[in-house]
Design brief:
With 119 residues, this protein is an alpha+beta fold. The chain contains three helices and six strands. The strands form three sheets. It has a two-stranded antiparallel ribbon with strand order 1-4. The protein has a two-stranded parallel ribbon with strand order 2-5. The radius of gyration is 31 Å and the shape is elongated. It starts with a helix and ends with a strand. The relative contact order is 0.17.
Amino acid sequence: MVKPSYFSSLSMVNAKKPPPHHHDMQGKTILAFRRIVQKKRYVWKRLRKTVAKAPAPATSQRAQARLTALQARESAGACALWYFDASGFCLEPCIPYAWQPIGTTLELPQSSHNQRLNV
């Protein structure tokens, strides 16, 4: 026959066991969430930043006409047309990612107060 003190000592051992590590539980939860989302055919990818508002049609048509005229002058030999590439950076270093359905890209309108600085 087993003594009652044996059971009480086992319960004490179980009570003194350290709890599972929080980061282990968090990792398992994240993996489970990831599996569920991927079964729904979603992927974790970067959001595309878009301009908050499109340029005025008259402005873009005027610029396109001007460029076409300059290209015509270059082909006639009246001038040399050079193209320059601007470099710059944004003060907002955030690169957003999100779960998105496969085959689509979510767009995030860029705020006007975080503008690009050209150098």
